[in-house]
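Weekly modeling sync, notes
Attendees: S.R. (lead), two postdocs, one rotation student

Agenda item 3: backlog of single-chain predictions. S.R. asked that every request posted to the team notebook include the full sequence so nobody has to chase files. The rotation student volunteered to paste the first one in as an example of the format we agreed on. Action items at the bottom.

Example entry:
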Amino acid sequence: MKELIVILMSAILVNNYVLNKFLGICPFLGVSKKSDQAVGMGASVIFVMLVATAATWPIYNYLLAPNGLAYLQTIVFILVIAALVQFVEIFLKKFIPALHKSLGVYLPLITTNCAVLGVTINNITDEYTFIESMVSSLGCGLGFLLAMWLFAGVRSRLEESDAPECFKGMPITLVAASIVSVAFMGFGGIIDKLFA
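Predicted structure, as returned to the notebook:
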């Protein structure tokens, strides 16, 4: 149980996929203008990460690896993730049309979101069991949601700021993102000390 808590907390804070590993930057910068959109995207990514892990872990461990086809993992994982994102898009369009409309073009970007692919591949690389992989995916998704939500708050403050003309728009956004990233690096060792 202690190991699962360490995996979860380190995925959320220490190894945050957006702010530490710099995966999933496109939706992070694109959908973090409003907190409701950021939370919606984060929740969608959590769902896709969990379902993608639940689908790809058995495919790799019971189909690809035993048959000497491990070299196909990236291609197979991309196809599985793309199919899952289509499912999420259809679901949102049918049952939550307001969220589907607010996410707009960024929802299909989950297909190409390298954070989702990175989670599935890293779970295999780290040799996690199925339960550990699911906990890791949940933590990575929650970390993505946390980063999106926090940065939506930062960006709302940036909209009101009086930045120099050369920094307005994306430059000040990137500077703010780097500062938030550096702040998250302060969590580096706290999990080991808490659970040692």
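Discussion: group reviewed the output briefly. The chain has nine helices and no strands.
Action items: rotation student to repeat for the remaining queue; S.R. to check formatting next week.
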